[in-house]
Amino acid sequence: MQEIYLDNSATTRPYDEVIELMARVMRTGYGNPSSNHAKGMEAEKIVREAREALARALGCRVEEIMFTSGGTESNNQAIKGAAYRHRRRGNHIITSAIEHPSVLNCCRRLEEEGFKVTYVPVDSEGYILVEELARALSAQTILVSLAHVNNEIGTIQPLDQIGPMIKKNNPQTLFHVDGAQALAKVPVELDRWQADLYSCSAHKIHGPKGVGALWIKANTMLQPLLEGGGQEGGLRSGTENVPGIAGFGLAVRRSVKLMQANNDLMYGLKERLLQGLQKAGVTVSVNGPPPRRSAPHLLNLCFPGIKADILLRALEQEGIYASAGSACHSRHPQPSHVLQATGLDEDMIAASLRFSFSGLNSVAEIDTVVKQIVKSVTELRQILP
Ligand SMILES: Cc1ncc(COP(=O)(O)O)c(C=O)c1O
Predict the structure, then answer these.
(1) From the CB of 163, is ligand 1 less than 6 Å away?
(2) Is the predicted pLDDT of residue 328 greater than 70, yes or no?
(3) pLDDT value of position 382
(4) Ligand 1 centroid distance, CA of 201 (Å)
(5) How far is CA 350 from the centre of its chain?
(6) What is the CA radius of gyration of the chain?
(7) Boundary-marking domain end, from 257, 275, 304
(8) CA 78 and chain centroid, separation
(9) Do 87 and 179 have their domain in common?
(10) Is 72 a pocket residue for ligand 1 (Cβ < 6 Å)?
(11) Which of 15, 157, 219, 370 is the Cys-Cys partner for 276 at CB 3.0 to 4.6 Å?
């Protein structure tokens, strides 16, 4: 059976070249980058080249990149590292209601430890209410943490408006951006946003799982979460995941190079899917911003009256993979906190599916998916009340 993978927000298929490079690094470049001999230096060079690739992609300095085990660790390091380091300056953190659990749960943990957190609401398309954020800023605010692109509905936040506003209120407030869903899909403009910290994840851009990076602007002080041998500038101890980092570097280089072509393709695929369904007479609405305004790879659709999990199973039987929300939630079905925050009612949330694309998808695949959804929705409407 043909497999059609439309869950690229959860994770992507690694590029073949990435897999081959990682295997080669494991086989021959297995030295410890900290070792003071040729084998160690070979591994150190592999890590350095990946760091350079990431720095080029983010438009930052090479020494500002810290490798981590993924977006989750990058977010934890940024948020807890900033909170613990700067708690003497203030105890207030601002985030939004639609963040990834790796941000929200960090903030909840910090609340238990005595920090105050403001969860700024969003509008019906998932845009942060900027005036509410402005009102929440105070002399006590040490950190603002926001996702660049939302992982369920693809809202791209106006960071060029938000960042300068934060700094105008207090230049010492750190601005962390979670870029896990944005890297190589949406332009990164760290200077323009006046950001201090930016989280990335390799497996969202056809790299390996378990690798990520945190950009830490020069002179930004964070408390390390891991103590040990002092790797990664003393902030992240532990022998580097050299094959993973190598794979990340190659995935970044390739996906940045292909960004324009992939985005053109993905915007086309989103429109084809939506228009295909509408032309076939399927009742469907878009959650989040209109498809052309949201991130290229995300399309969240509501099929009123159809239970998302039933439609998902029907599609899965035909080899089509999508999801009912973020991967972190889908095994524990709870209404999506993102859709709730946009004001969607429970029935509509239960009828919503996330389709997420990559440059490896094709027009032919989307035509198959449209046919299959039309068939499944028609059948389900006949049997469901
Ligand atoms: C917005 C966002 N932040 C963080 C993460 C966590 O990244 P990782 O899976 O690399 O830990 C994800 C992954 O789904 C995400 O979508």
Answers:
(1) no
(2) no
(3) 86
(4) 7
(5) 23
(6) 21
(7) 257
(8) 15
(9) yes
(10) yes
(11) 370
| 166 and 21 housed in the same domain | yes
- 201 vs 328: CA distance, rounded Å: 15
**Residues 213 and 172 placed together within one structural domain of the fold:** yes
**328 among known catalytic residues:** yes
CA-wise closest residue to 72 among 214, 183, 185: 214
CATH code, 116:
3.40.640.10
178 lines ligand 1 (CB under 6 A): yes
- Residue 296 CB less than 6 A away from ligand 1: no
The Cα 300–Cα 367 span in angstroms is 18
Q: For residues 320 and 246, state if they share a domain.
A: no
Q: Please indicate, yes or no, whether residues 198 and 268 belong to a single structural domain of this protein.
A: no
- 0.85 surpassed by pTM: yes
Ligand 1 close to Cβ of residue 69 (< 6 A):
no
Q: Which atom of ligand 1 lies nearest, measured to the CA of 99?
A: 1
Distance CA 124, CA 290 (A): 11
Which one of 205, 239, 257 terminates a domain? 257
Spacing, Cα 318 to ligand 1 middle (Å): 28
Q: Is the pLDDT of residue 200 over 70?
A: yes
pLDDT of residue 1: 85
Tell me the average pLDDT across 234-255. 97
Determine which residue's CA is closest to atom 16 belonging to ligand 1. 151
- Asked whether residue 240 falls in the same domain as residue 268, the answer is no
> Per the structure, how many domains does the chain have?
2
Establish whether residue 70 lines the binding site of ligand 1, counting it when its CB lies within 6 angstroms of any ligand atom: yes
At residue 113, what are phi and psi to the nearest 5 degrees? Answer: -90, 5
Using CA atoms of 96, 98, 99, 104 in order, give the dihedral in degrees to the nearest 10: 70
Distance (Å) from CA 198 to ligand 1 centroid: 12
- Whether pLDDT at 330 is above 70: no
Q: What does the alpha-carbon distance between residue 202 and residue 356 come to, in Å, rounded to a whole number?
A: 16
Residues 6+ apart with CB under 8 A from 345: none
Q: Choose one of 11, 12, 72, 186 to mutate for the ligand 1 pocket test, by most ligand atoms within 8 angstroms of C-beta.
A: 72
In this structure, the strands spanning 298-302 and 285-287 are antiparallel
Same-domain check for residues 263 and 240: no
**Residue owning the nearest CA to atom 4 of ligand 1:** 71
pLDDT over 60 at 378, yes or no: yes
Protein residue with its CA nearest to atom 5 in ligand 1? 71
Which structural domain, as residue segments, surrounds residue 355?
4-12+259-383
